[in-house]
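Hi V.,

Quick status before I head out on leave. The structure for the redesign project is tokenized and pasted below; the design run finished overnight.
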């Protein structure tokens, strides 16, 4: 059996992939790897292009490997798309893509996973069985909408592992893809579930004990989490509070606050705010501590993120 345990970056994987695949076309040259649960594709583009259309028959999960794209959605929005970010296209929808930097010497490379509805429903059923949400929030289900965010380093490593198993033709690549897709869908569902919970908080923070607790954290991101105080706000015991955070958000209250601090930090840095002022505004003890936490979450330092 041939397997690889050495971690690979998307840049090195893209280079290894292109050494094995001769371009049949210069824009969106596609290489396909299929399995029972999903279809993995790697796209290489070797020249600048605009408004190249990509249609999604099933849910399409996209990740940048090298270079930069600009994605234009059906509802008129446009956004840059960089490595360490996810972009999801809903079934039956499309995006139009610009390649502002692609060239023969610096091609733009992207991977996509086309995930059938059956796979999405299967993972939803599993989550509803083992990780039931509070009744007021309803069951786990996939929101079929366009979706763009900076993903965590754990998600980045998962995507790299899926691509590496196929680029290097490992004997267990089908298993890696199948297991990886299940984990990726679960991560996506938890992220979408959290987004839904935040919308509930904005609309009616007193809807449930959990929304009360989340609303308090959102309003006090820079302050340490007092679990006893949070439990009183939620009208729950400490044990039930932790259970509801774990089942609905996949983490503890303190971990949730840390994630939200760092997500808010991304927004502030993107808006042009300095790293130092962002650090102290969000309650981190010093820039070094902030940089370590940011790197743990996103696989890069705040300075590297700002440079992107």
């Amino acid at each position: 059996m041939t397997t690889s345990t050495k971690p690979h970056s998307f840049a090195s994987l893209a280079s290894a992939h292109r050494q094995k695949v001769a371009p049949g076309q210069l824009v969106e040259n596609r290489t396909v790897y299929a399995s029972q649960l999903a279809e993995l594709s790697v796209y290489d583009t070797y020249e600048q292009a605009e408004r190249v259309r990509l249609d999604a028959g099933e849910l399409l999960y996209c990740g940048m490997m090298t270079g930069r794209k600009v994605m234009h959605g059906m509802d008129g929005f446009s956004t840059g798309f960089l490595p360490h970010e996810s972009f999801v296209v809903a079934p039956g929808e499309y995006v139009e893509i610009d390649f502002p930097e692609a060239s023969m010497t610096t091609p733009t490379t992207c991977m996509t996973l086309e995930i059938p509805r059956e796979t999405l429903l299967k993972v939803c059923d599993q989550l509803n069985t083992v990780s039931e949400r509070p009744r007021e929030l309803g069951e786990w289900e996939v929101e079929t909408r366009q979706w763009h965010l900076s993903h965590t380093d754990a998600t980045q490593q998962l995507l790299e592992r899926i691509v590496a198993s196929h680029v290097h033709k490992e004997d267990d690549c089908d298993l890696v893809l199948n297991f990886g897709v299940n984990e990726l869908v679960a991560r996506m569902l938890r992220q979408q579930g959290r987004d839904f919970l935040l919308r509930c908080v904005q609309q009616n923070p007193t809807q449930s004990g959990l929304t009360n607790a989340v609303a308090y954290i959102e309003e006090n991101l820079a302050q340490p989490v007092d679990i006893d105080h949070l439990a009183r706000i939620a009208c729950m015991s400490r044990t039930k509070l932790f259970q509801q955070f774990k089942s609905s958000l996949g983490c503890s209250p303190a971990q949730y606050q840390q994630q939200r601090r760092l997500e808010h930090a991304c927004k502030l840095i993107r808006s042009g705010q300095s790293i130092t002022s962002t650090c102290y505004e969000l309650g981190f003890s010093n820039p070094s501590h902030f940089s370590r936490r940011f790197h743990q979450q996103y696989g890069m330092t705040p300075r590297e993120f700002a440079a992107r």
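Above is the designed sequence. The longest helix spans residues 173-203.

G. will cover questions while I'm gone.

Best,
W.
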